[in-house]
């Protein structure tokens, strides 16, 4: 099998010239480029990409640590990353974890082993102290705010967004408010939701929170439990429009009117929410993902905030 040295000999050029041709370097004469490409075609030569990457000093590959791939929020973040990767000719490696901290560290070792140029963390299982050492080997970008100067982040102010939701519901006269979350209090976003609630309404009763909500079916189950509480909540803030849609369907199935008997707010402006006219808190996660890619590509440690949007519809 031909190698780069054989290609150079047959083309009558140096190995470094062959390397420049393989890497599309502009400082190669047209005569030498043509000679090298002719030999490559005749020999049916396929370059060793790992060797090319080592010569170039980068892989043009970025990893995306993502807990789940069937979650609307993470899907939107990934969609944003993929948008920008196609525009910039980068490959994206999706690295699912299911919030397993050991799996997350295993993925981060791909930076140390020079298999990736950067890693984007959409949501993490490990404390930052376990992640920071890997910034020595490549760019680490977070999709949540972090003060650590070694890590760039593309984020939205979740706490401010949650606060606005609860303030709006209070202004509308609601006092018994329930909400759903994906994870328990180990999650930063769950703790921020509870903190925002308590800022507006005071002490929070855990019975009015339903965790492990990811899908339409989870929303149906959450609606059944939450609407069975006495006193029944008059408003539910769901952690996603799919979940909100399930709550909406269950509420209607037991004869409740929306919004007269129950106000519903979802998240992320998904098609199901548009179809059911459910109000939503749009974190603009596609834009967050796009910005995360840009930071990773240029190896930036900047902190870039994307503003959220409240979209009010008939469900409240």
Automatic annotation (TrEMBL):
Keywords: DNA-binding, Transcription, Transcription regulation. The keyword Transcription regulation applies. It comes from the Bacteria. The lineage of its organism: Bacteria, Bacillati, Bacillota, Bacilli, Bacillales. It comes from Paenibacillus vini. InterPro entries: HTH_LacI, Lambda_DNA-bd_dom_sf, Peripla_BP/Lac1_sug-bd_dom, Peripla_BP_I. SMART domains: HTH_LACI. This is LacI family transcriptional regulator. Residues 2-56 form the HTH lacI-type domain.
């Amino acid at each position: 099998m031909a190698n780069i040295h054989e290609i150079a000999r047959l083309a009558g050029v140096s190995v470094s010239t062959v390397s420049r041709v393989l890497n599309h370097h502009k400082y190669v004469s047209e005569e030498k480029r043509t000679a090298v490409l002719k030999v490559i075609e005749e020999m049916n030569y396929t370059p060793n990409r790992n060797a090319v990457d080592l010569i170039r000093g980068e892989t043009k590959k970025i990893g995306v640590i993502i807990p789940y791939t069937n979650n609307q929020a993470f899907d939107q973040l990934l969609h944003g990353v993929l948008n920008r990767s196609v525009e910039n000719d980068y490959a994206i490696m999706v690295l699912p974890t299911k919030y397993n901290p050991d799996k997350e560290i295993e993925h981060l070792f791909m930076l140390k082993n020079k298999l990736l140029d950067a890693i984007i963390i959409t949501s993490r299982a490990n404390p930052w102290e376990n992640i920071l050492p890997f910034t020595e080997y490549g760019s680490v970008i977070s999709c949540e705010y972090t003060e650590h100067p070694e890590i760039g982040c593309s984020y939205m102010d979740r706490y401010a967004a949650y606060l606005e939701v609860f303030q709006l519901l209070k202004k509308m006269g609601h006092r018994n408010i329930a909400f759903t979350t994906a994870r328990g209090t180990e999650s930063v976003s769950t703790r921020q939701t509870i903190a925002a609630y308590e800022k507006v309404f005071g002490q929070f009763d855990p019975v009015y929170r339903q965790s492990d909500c990811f899908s339409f079916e989870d929303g149906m189950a959450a609606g059944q439990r939450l609407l069975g509480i006495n006193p029944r909540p008059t408003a539910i803030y769901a952690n996603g429009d799919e979940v909100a849609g399930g709550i909406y369907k269950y509420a209607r199935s037991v004869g409740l009117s929306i919004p007269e008997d129950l106000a519903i707010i979802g998240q992320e402006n998904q098609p199901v929410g548009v179809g059911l006219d459910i109000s939503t808190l749009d974190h603009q996660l596609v834009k967050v993902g796009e910005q995360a890619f840009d930071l990773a590509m240029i190896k930036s440690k900047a902190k870039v905030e994307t503003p959220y949007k409240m979209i009010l519809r008939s469900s409240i």
